[in-house]
Design a protein that fits this description.
Length: 127
């Protein structure tokens, strides 16, 4: 009986904690010059699949497969994220935010980072 009560207490505490999604750092804003950059792949929707593969490998652990966020990374499907210019998203993917635990992916070739941005745009339509 004691074990059942202990398990119930742990479950009651753990489930809400696991359901939380990490908040977004509202002070993390791309410089204007970076925000103005245009995705050179914007018209290449055929490359979105490559972006999806990169996202699954590099981003989904923290942001979830569907961009809904986890305790390690915020939601990417929210309107305030989707309203950001491609250049701003590219800058964030490239630069990271070590203060919040977001790694920089500048080691990836530039076109792969732009492919990730293509996939981020596709996430909003699947939510």
């Amino acid at each position: 009986m004691k074990a059942w009560l202990l398990l119930s207490a742990i479950t009651a505490f753990a489930i809400p904690v696991l359901a939380q999604v990490k908040g977004r750092d509202s002070s993390w804003v791309a410089p204007a010059s970076e925000s103005e950059r245009v995705n050179p792949l914007a018209t290449r929707i055929d490359l979105k699949t490559g972006g999806e593969k990169l996202y699954r490998k590099r981003c989904a652990t923290c942001h979830a497969q569907d961009g809904s966020g986890t305790t390690r990374g915020p939601r990417l499907v929210d309107p305030d994220v989707q309203a950001q210019n491609d250049g701003a998203l590219f800058w964030k993917v490239s630069s990271g935010n070590s203060h919040e635990g977001m790694p920089a992916f500048s080691f990836l070739p530039e076109l792969q980072r732009w492919q990730i941005v293509l996939h981020l745009r596709a996430l909003k339509t699947s939510e």
